[in-house]
User: Which sequence fits this backbone?
């Protein structure tokens, strides 16, 4: 993960956590829906790793939201 985009990854992780909690899903539930480990989901939400577009697309689909919502940084 490029340090240059640290704040963007952080905002992306916060958005994923926000929409997950809004739907009352645990990290493990969302991770299972996306076919990744709970540890990987935690690392994505906590800005501890880069994330592929494939995983982002699967997360958006599992949360039933448009992908762009994950990138609406406030």
Assistant:
């Amino acid at each position: 993960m490029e340090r240059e985009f640290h704040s963007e990854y952080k905002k992306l992780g916060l958005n994923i956590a926000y929409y997950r909690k809004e739907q009352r899903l645990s990290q493990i539930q969302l991770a299972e829906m996306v076919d990744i480990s709970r540890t990987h989901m935690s690392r994505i939400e906590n800005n501890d790793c880069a994330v592929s577009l494939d995983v982002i697309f699967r997360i958006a689909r599992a949360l039933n939201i448009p992908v762009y919502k994950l990138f609406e940084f406030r």
Observations:
- The radius of gyration is 11 Å.
- The mean pLDDT is 95.
- The chain is about 65% helix and 0% strand.
- Residues 6-22 form the longest helix (17 residues).
